Automatic annotation (TrEMBL):
High-level lineage: Bacteria, Pseudomonadati, Chlorobiota, Chlorobiia, Chlorobiales
Chain residues that bind Zn(2+): 115, 118, 186
Species whose genome carries this gene: Chlorobium limicola
Encoding gene, per UniProt annotation: folE
Pfam families in UniProt: GTP_cyclohydroI (PF01227)
Keyword Hydrolase: yes
Protein name per its UniProtKB record: GTP cyclohydrolase 1
Top-level taxon in the UniProt lineage: Bacteria
Pathway: Cofactor biosynthesis; 7,8-dihydroneopterin triphosphate biosynthesis; 7,8-dihydroneopterin triphosphate from GTP: step 1/1
């Protein structure tokens, strides 16, 4: 298959050293995308992109577009790399026993995701809080778990709940609260074309549901 041949040529030209699933590339700026060695998946996406270029009335063979299917394939696999990561495993890497039992809040976590309806980006901020019950988690792991779920095809509501559920399952804390504020490009650059609309979703558990004062404290802390 043509795209498959192009992909394997690229892998050779970029000095990829393959060792099992992971590979190393000498070019730092392309490291993330080129670490993906699933040439079958890459070539299926690339073939679809060629058809898409044809479908929009372009010539997939013209100079500027010749490598586009391969670039889009790598980009798309990068933007959906969360399917190949286990969020609960990510969290479990840094769980510590600690008596702290007040709210822990990581706010303003940047998110970039893609809506499953139009494959267009939505992006914004996530705010994640929990109240420990004997166990805390490394702070970066909260941002990482957000990242794992965001890097899939999503609806904002599910993304919000999945983050809550992963933290709840792994830490079993007294409560978890997640708020996401995002702009959906499918509502901005097409469709209803509302440039300034922002969607807010929330998912809570435990004390954040049971105690209005805990919920208010959280909402006050995430106010801009
Ligand atoms: N609930 C929810 N809807 C979303 C999200 N992302 C995109 N959508 C919506 O998904 C819906 C799909 O509606 P359809 O009528 O099937 O698609 P469409 O004809 O492209 O709709 P328009 O965007 O209104 O032009 C649209 O209303 C989008 O705004 C999301 O994260 N959550
Ligand atoms: Zn959409």
């Amino acid at each position: 298959m043509k795209q498959e041949k192009m992909l394997s040529d690229t892998l050779e030209n970029k000095s990829i050293v393959s060792s099992g699933r992971a590979s190393q590339c000498i070019d730092d700026d392309c490291l993330h995308e080129l670490q993906d060695t699933d040439t079958g998946a890459l070539s299926r996406i690339a073939d679809a992109v060629s058809s898409m270029l044809d479908g929009v009335g372009e010539d997939p063979e013209r100079e500027g577009l010749v490598k586009t299917p391969e670039r889009v394939a790598r980009s798309m696999r990068f933007l959906t790399r969360g399917y190949r990561q286990d969020p609960e495993e990510v969290l479990k890497k840094a769980v510590f026993t600690e008596a702290y039992d007040e709210m822990v809040l990581v706010r303003d976590i940047d998110i970039f995701s893609m809506c499953e309806h139009h494959l267009l980006p939505f992006f914004g901020k996530a705010h994640v809080a929990y109240i420990p019950d004997g166990k805390i988690v490394g702070l970066s792991k909260i941002a990482r778990v957000v990242e794992v779920y965001a890097r899939r095809l999503q609806v904002q509501e599910r993304l919000t709940q999945q983050i809550r559920d992963a933290i709840q399952n792994v830490l079993n804390p007294k409560g978890v609260a997640v708020v996401i504020e995002a702009r959906h490009m499918c509502m901005v650059m097409r469709g209803v074309e509302k440039l300034n609309s922002i969607t807010t979703t929330s998912a809570m558990s435990g004390e954040f549901l049971a105690s209005p004062s805990t919920r208010s404290e959280f909402l006050r802390l995430i106010r801009p």
